[in-house]
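Per-residue structure
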Amino acid sequence: MGIVQKIIGEQRQRLSEAGSDRWPVVSVQLAAKVGPMAVRGAVLAPRLGSRGGVPLIGRGVRVRNPHLVHVGADLVVEDYAEIQGLSRDGIRLGNGVSIGTGTLIRPSSYYSRAIGVGLVMGDGSSLSPGCYIGCSGGVVIGDKTMLGPGVRVFAEDHVMADPTADVKSQGVHWSPITIGSGCWIASGVTITSGVSIGDGAVVAAGAVVTRDVPAGAVYGGIPAREIKTRSVS
C-alpha cells in the first residue's frame, strides 16, 4: 500500500526534524489507523467508476452511487464523511485529495428532486472537517486549494420572485461555483451560487462570499469585500 508507507514515512521525517525519537511508536499508531482504512478502501475500490489506486476510507464513510465517483491516487476520506455520486457529470477527485471528518458532498437530493451537476476537485486539494459542498449547480475546485473546517458551498439558490407563493414551492436556481488553484478558503466561509474565486485568492474566516473574488485577492467580511491583494514576488 504505497499511500500507507507514504504517510508513515512522512510522519517519521517530521518527527525526526522536530528532534523526536518517538517515530516507532507513532508509526505503529498510524499503521493501526490507516491499515483498516486501506481495507475499507480495497472493498470500495472495485465499485468506483474509476480509480488511480486504493483509497483510504475512514469509519462510517458513506459513498452513494459509487459508479459515478471517479478518484485519483492517494485519496483519503476521513471518518463519517459522505459522498453522493448521483449527478449528471459525477464526482471527480484528483490525485492526493483529502476529505475531512463529517464532510458532506451532495449534488442531488435523495428525494424526488432533479439530478445535480457534480463536483470536480484538482490534485492536492483538501476539504477540512465539517465542510458542506452543495454541488447541484456544479462546483469546480482547482489544484492545491484548501477549504477550512466548516466551509459551506452552495451552487444553488431558492427562487423567491413571487411574494404570494411560498418559497419552497418556487424551486431553486442552479449556478456553478469555481474556486481556482492555490486558494485558501478559511474556516466557516460560505460561498453562494454563481461565484468565481480566482487562483491564489484567500477568503478570511467567517466571510460570506456573494460576488467574484479576483485572483490573488484577500477578501473578508459579510458580505465579503477586498481587504488587500497578496504580493507576488
About this structure: The chain is about 15% helix and 30% strand. The mean pLDDT is 90. The CA atoms of residues 118 and 138 lie 5 Å apart.
